[in-house]
């Protein structure tokens, strides 16, 4: 099995030095950049919007993995696509028509992801798998970095791995929240192929060592 992909979450970066942080994380071996978009409404925190995504896009070649925690999401999909997102993920609870939202993301030429909150069942994504390039399992309640991993999500990851394998399609299975070198092995064992990590990367002094520790944790 290929190495797990590591997507550091910019939320834990030094916001006074965002450009340098993105350069540093790419040099440290990150595979994707995870960008958490929060509106203070869907989640109890506000982060940043398409202006920042666009500014960072100009200096980075890394795939931009945009995690929308906003409602409604539909009116902003085009803005994030134009800002330079490669993949746009959204929560089924963020709008009335998940199928239509995924169609919109695809029609904008971007990859589409579905994010499952800790209490959201796997069947929320079961009937849109043909429009889905990534399923993200939240292993914390979204809104903040630095929270503790919720162990009950491991069985959900395993169930989704079986569901994805049955499709025969290359759908990524990503985990986000409380991922560290300690919690990563269980995620990888359950079938995750992409791990988001904020504090466990940007909170460390040596980014390359931090990424290596998370990636290698399952080996
Ligand atoms: C939480 C965000 C995460 C967050 C992860 O709402 O979706 O991406 O930044 O942070 P850590 O890795 O610190 O739990
Ligand atoms: Zn996220």
Q: Quick one: biggest sheet?
A: 8 strands, parallel
The secondary-structure class comes to alpha/beta
Low-pLDDT parts are none
Regarding CATH, which class?
Alpha Beta
CATH-scheme architecture: Alpha-Beta Barrel
Query: How many domains, as an integer?
Result: 1
Q: Hetero groups bound?
A: D-xylitol-5-phosphate, zinc ion
Amount of beta strand:
15-25%
CATH superfamily: Aldolase class I
Number of strands: 8
How far apart are the first and last residues' alpha carbons, in Å? 10 Å
Spatial strand order of the main sheet? 1-8-7-6-5-4-3-2
| N-to-C order of helices and strands | EHEHEHEHEEHEHEHH
Helical content class: 25-40%
Shape: globular
Mean pLDDT: 97
